[in-house]
């Protein structure tokens, strides 16, 4: 057992006890790296774990804006620029009341390894604000975004830090942010933000990319057991872009998606969320701002289960697409009892540590979000390439490149898990494969 890792785990638990989300992510990664540290002393000699745990830069600022009633409002803004060994910092902006530094550090830390797995030249970062776009007018959102960017713009650029969208930051918000950046910087630098509108530099396929990529990764996992999506029943949580993409691709591959969910509960559609009308209605629900999945049940006359999660439904594959820690131990036990064979995470750290441990011990195929939800950032990386080259690929070309990237990520995770003694463990495989590329680049670049 690596004494180096033991020391680092104790250090992290002592230092970051007040940051539970980050602490959970850091300990998971460190535990996976034990066999790596035992085989190669260079990482300890170069203090790689000590350095990779600490962000290169953390930016915190005040965001002041005026609501429609003329009242001044104040929010907190952040950007965590975590690691740039592989390229410019890359990661989303999240606007949600739950946002705090611990959550953004957890997301930024995970982003290091996720971006590394894509094979693209991207570092890791994350940012956002405790601003809640829900219930705000379009003008209020615009004023907030302009104020937020008035501070952030000096810290970003296509060769420095490239933010994207996340929860609460969609195409509308990216547009407002880009407009203000362009005004302040006096330059139309297309690669400074990803998730842009397709008419002004955005990549085709970006809204559905995370969901598509997760299903592609799951397809590769299933294939290791001689299985496929054909004829499988699938439970999906959420109904935003990620869930929408996962529903589309799983259906295309022959599965029947029977659930989606929201803050109010979940719906069960025994005939499958499989028609163009049903899939398109997911976009209508998201655009309505009501944040209620019951609207789907009312429209199509299917079951609605108030206040519950979809993991009690008998399915073959469960795909969490909503938020962190949405699948707990009891959920995992219920899924196991009902015969689930695969759980690929499409949201970041969807599964609690206790649930993850149970799932891995049960032999259920499981992939962490840093691997199976990397399709979104991979397509953002492709958008950066298109901006640099000043042209755009068609949807089928982007989809093909995304599929190839996800196959390669699966192979990297599978091979790393086997090489370091835990075959089939995609958690260890993803952490190790992502770490090695970053750590070796850090060694090459010296102590900096």
Architecture overview:
The protein has 448 residues and is of the alpha/beta class. The protein has two domains: 186 residues, Rossmann fold (3-Layer(aba) Sandwich), CATH 3.40.50.10860; 161 residues, Rossmann fold. It has 18 helices and twelve strands. It has a five-stranded mixed sheet. Helix 6 crosses helix 18, helix 9 crosses helix 16 and helix 17 packs across helix 18. The chain is globular, with a radius of gyration of 21 Å. The relative contact order is 0.12. The mean pLDDT is 96.
What's the arrangement of secondary structure elements?
Blueprint: H1 3-15, H2 20-32, H3 34-39, H4 42-45, H5 48-53, E1 57-66, E2 72-83, E3 89-95, H6 101-118, E4 124-129, H7 138-152, E5 161-164, H8 171-185, H9 206-223, E6 233-236, H10 241-252, E7 256-262, E8 265-268, H11 276-288, H12 294-300, E9 303-306, E10 317-319, H13 329-337, E11 342-344, H14 353-362, E12 365-367, H15 369-372, H16 375-389, H17 395-419, H18 426-444
Parallel strand pairs: 3-4, 3-5, 6-7, 6-10, 11-12
Antiparallel strand pairs: 1-2, 2-4, 7-8, 8-9
Helix pairs in contact: 1-2, 2-6, 6-18, 7-8, 9-10, 9-16, 9-17, 10-11, 13-14, 16-17, 17-18
Short overview:
By secondary structure, the protein is an alpha/beta fold. 50% of the residues lie in helices and 15% in strands. The protein has helices at 3-15, 20-32, 34-39, 42-45, 48-53, 101-118, 138-152, 171-185, 206-223, 241-252, 276-288, 294-300, 329-337, 353-362, 369-372, 375-389, 395-419, 426-444; strands at residues 57-66, 72-83, 89-95, 124-129, 161-164, 233-236, 256-262, 265-268, 303-306, 317-319, 342-344, 365-367.
């Amino acid at each position: 057992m690596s004494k180096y890792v033991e020391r680092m785990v104790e250090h992290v638990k002592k230092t970051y006890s007040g940051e539970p989300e980050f602490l959970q992510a850091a300990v998971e990664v460190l535990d996976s790296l034990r066999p790596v540290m035992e085989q190669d002393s260079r990482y300890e000699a170069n203090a790689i774990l000590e350095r990779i745990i600490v962000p290169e830069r953390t930016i915190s600022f005040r965001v002041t804006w005026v609501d429609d009633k003329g009242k001044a409002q104040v929010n907190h803004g952040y950007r965590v620029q975590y690691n740039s060994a592989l390229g410019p910092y890359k990661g989303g902006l999240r606007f949600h009341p739950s946002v705090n530094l611990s959550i953004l550090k957890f997301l930024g830390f995970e982003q290091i390894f996720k971006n590394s797995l894509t094979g693209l030249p991207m570092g890791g970062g994350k940012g956002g604000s405790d601003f809640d776009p829900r219930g705000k007018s379009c003008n209020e959102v615009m004023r907030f975004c302009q104020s937020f960017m008035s501070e952030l713009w000096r810290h970003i650029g296509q060769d420095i830090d490239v933010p994207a969208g996340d929860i609460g930051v969609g195409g509308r918000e990216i547009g407002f942010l880009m407009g203000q950046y362009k005004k302040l910087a006096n330059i139309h630098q297309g690669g400074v933000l990803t998730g842009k509108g397709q008419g002004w530099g955005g990549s085709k396929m970006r809204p559905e990319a995370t969901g598509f990529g997760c299903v592609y990764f799951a397809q590769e996992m299933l294939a290791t057991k001689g299985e496929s999506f054909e004829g499988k029943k699938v439970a999906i949580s959420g109904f935003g872009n990620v869930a929408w993409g996962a529903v589309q691709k799983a259906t295309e591959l022959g599965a029947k998606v029977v659930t989606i969910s929201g803050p109010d509960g979940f719906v069960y559609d025994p005939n499958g969320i499989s028609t163009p009308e049903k899939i398109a209605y997911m976009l209508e629900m998201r655009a309505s701002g009501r944040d209620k999945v019951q609207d789907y049940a009312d429209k199509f006359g299917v079951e609605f289960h108030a206040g519950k999660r979809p993991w009690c439904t008998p399915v073959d594959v469960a795909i969490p697409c909503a938020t962190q820690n949405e699948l707990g131990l009891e959920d995992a036990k219920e899924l196991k009892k009902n015969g689930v064979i695969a759980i690929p995470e499409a949201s970041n750290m969807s599964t609690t540590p206790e649930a993850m441990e149970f799932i891995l011990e049960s032999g259920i195929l499981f992939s962490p979000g840093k691997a199976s939800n990397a399709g979104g950032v991979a397509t953002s990386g492709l958008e950066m390439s298109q901006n640099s080259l000043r042209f755009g690929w068609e949807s089928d070309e982007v989809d093909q490149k995304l599929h190839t990237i996800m196959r390669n990520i699966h192979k990297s995770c599978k091979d790393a898990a086997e090489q370091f003694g835990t075959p089939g463990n995609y958690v260890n495989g993803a952490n190790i494969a992502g770490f090695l590329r970053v750590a070796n680049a850090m060694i090459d670049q010296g102590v900096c």
